[in-house]
Amino acid sequence: TAQNTCGVTAIMTVTPEFLAAQLDAVYEDIPPDAVKVGMCASEVLIRTMAERFRFYKIERLVVDPVMVATSGARLIEETAVLFPLASLITPNLPEAELLLGAPIRSAAAMEKAAKELWSRYGTPVLLKGGHDKTRADDYLYLGSEGGMWLRAERIATENTHGTGCTLSSAIAANLAKGVALTEAVIRGKAYVRGALLSGLSLGKGSGPLDHAWNLEEKQ
Smaller CB count within 10 Å for the chain: N or C? Predict the structure, then answer.
């Protein structure tokens, strides 16, 4: 991508053959303990990933179904090819609305939507409520284990560039360390909250989170 704090100005995709070669190069040398998938700009690349992940029998996969420009609806639906392979999917409210074809306007609707996504794909769901104007409450649904709310006050900051990507990546990082899914989500959300509260301000638009907010200097 060509992007800055003001937005994305261009997207260039690689060929499916090159993407497959990248995945093979990683798995054949240093197999990852967890994988996070974010923005996918074409259907063929999504299907290439799905094929390679099945081949390598991936165990820990977090899928953040990110919308892309005007083709968002089609690509969101295509990303669902990855859902049955995932340990967790992390749609926000607009993305879940596209997947389900229905508005989500209340806490009860969020719970219903998460359960519907589970019933369709058999995958745990973290439905993110950050698009709400007053709260940042997320709902985690684990199927037979039930669901739980992760409550949080909305943080007053314009520097939220990459919040969803950071959350899904933090969850995957915790899964890679062997943390159970629920605890990985709790830790991931706490990490993002700290990164927002840190108050990093860069660029002319919506700046990034402070990803280094909890690093300690080692002697």
Answer: C
